[in-house]
Amino acid sequence: MQNADKHHPDCFSEAEAAHALGISIARLHKLLDENIFNDGSKRPPDLLLRSSDLVLLEFWNRSTENPNVLRMPRRA
Predict the structure, then answer these.
(1) Per residue in 2-59, pLDDT tens?
(2) What is the pLDDT of residue 56?
(3) Range of the structural domain that residue 56 is part of
(4) CA-CA distances (angstroms) from residue 43 to 1, 4, 33, 68?
């Protein structure tokens, strides 16, 4: 993820990323907050996401709780 002013072909705004994933911006924010910004830090404004970020976000969006997968605990 990157925070930049210029739009790069491999960068997506939050709205573009949500649209590409077929989810709402609120769902995107929830995924980011649960999986990335879970150490108490705030999501930066004007966040740009790369294609590789979208792959992870799509995985997290589709994943369900699985007792065979050990998830990292939330950071306090």
Answers:
(1) 454 455 568 999 999 999 999 999 999 999 998 899 888 899 988 999 999 999 999 9
(2) 94
(3) 11-61
(4) 11, 14, 7, 30
Which residues on adjacent β-strands are paired with residue 12? 49
User: 69: which 2 tokens?
Assistant: 């997968």
Q: How many domains does the chain have?
A: 1
Residue with tokens 């995107």: 28
Contact at 8 Å (CB) between 12 and 47?
Answer: no
What is the model's pTM? 0.72
- Cα separation, 14 vs 41, whole angstroms: 18
- 4 in any annotated domain: no
